[in-house]
Amino acid sequence: PYATTPSPEESVIINQTRSHFYNALEELSPEYRQVIEMRFIEEYSYEEIAEKLGRPLNTIKTQIRRARATICKMILDKE
Questions:
Q1: C-alpha distances in angstroms, 24 versus 3, 64, 71?
Q2: Helix (H) or strand (E) run with residue 56 in it
Q3: Measured between alpha carbons, how far is 75 from 24 in angstroms, rounded to an integer?
Q4: Rounded to 10 degrees, what is the CA torsion of 22, 27, 31, 34?
Q5: Which of 27, 47, 57, 63 has the largest CB neighbor count within 10 A?
Q6: How far apart are CA 35 and CA 63, in angstroms?
Q7: Contact between residue 39 and residue 48 where contact means Cβ atoms under 8 Å apart
Q8: Are 38 and 44 in contact (CB under 8 A)?
Q9: From CA 76, how far away is CA 61, in angstroms rounded?
Q10: What value does the CA radius of gyration of the chain take, rounded to a whole number of Å?
Q11: pTM of the predicted model, to two decimals?
């Protein structure tokens, strides 16, 4: 049977990844941080974010895409 809990090594990797993500999130501009938090932490849909912020849907999609790319670059640069 497969283990349902992560191994100690997997737990370390998960915690490091989470730490890198939150560190990168803190370095984002407030505008990008807001949309990333709403999308991936608060789990709002793109449509809900656009409605709540009063911005066009395509603007939200673009901001999230750019913010994700920025976070990925920050994480890769630190490794």
A1: 31, 14, 6
A2: none
A3: 7
A4: 10
A5: 63
A6: 7
A7: no
A8: yes
A9: 23
A10: 15
A11: 0.79
The token duo for 67 is 């913010």
CA distances from 60 to 9, 48, 73 (A): 36, 10, 20
Q: Token pair for residue 12?
A: 């370390």
H helix and E strand count, the chain: 4, 0
Q: pLDDT tens digits, residue range 8-61?
A: 888 888 888 888 888 889 999 999 999 999 999 999 999 999 999 999 999 999
Burial class (CB in 10 A: 0-12, 13-18, 19+), 4: exposed
pLDDT band for position 76 (cuts 50, 70, 90):
confident
